[in-house]
Amino acid sequence: MPRGSKEKYTDKQKRKAEHIEDSYKEKGVSEDEAEARAWATVNKQSGGGERKGGSGQKKSSTAKTQDRQQSARRAVATKHGVPRSKSASLEEQTKAQLLEKARAKNIPGRSTMRKQELIEALQR
């Protein structure tokens, strides 16, 4: 027998679970197992009990358009190697990124340096 109250499920979800349960019973599955499988299927398909629609985010169409444009600009900048923000500090970068910068500046001994050593060498 499935656990929990089914009060928060919509009528449509309840009908769907009943239909699925009947289908399992016709296949010879025990009543308890059929009910458990039916509710598991409904939960997987709809995410559980009754839910309010939407993500809760309310944006105007102009705000959405502006966000899309900014996102596209950031994507192009990233593609061309520009860091996400101009203030992206060396500490926020990965060691591989730091090694690449050190290679571009031809810093000697870079391959054996630790991350902090790379940061210090790049700051010089």
TrEMBL record:
Pfam families: Rho_N. Residues 1-30, 92-103, 114-124 have a biased composition (Basic and acidic residues). SUPFAM superfamilies: Rho N-terminal domain-like. Residues 1-124 are annotated as: Disordered. InterPro entries: Rho-like_N (IPR011112), Rho_N_sf (IPR036269). Residues 90-122 form the Rho termination factor-like N-terminal domain. It comes from the Bacteria. This is Rho termination factor N-terminal domain-containing protein. It comes from Serpens gallinarum.
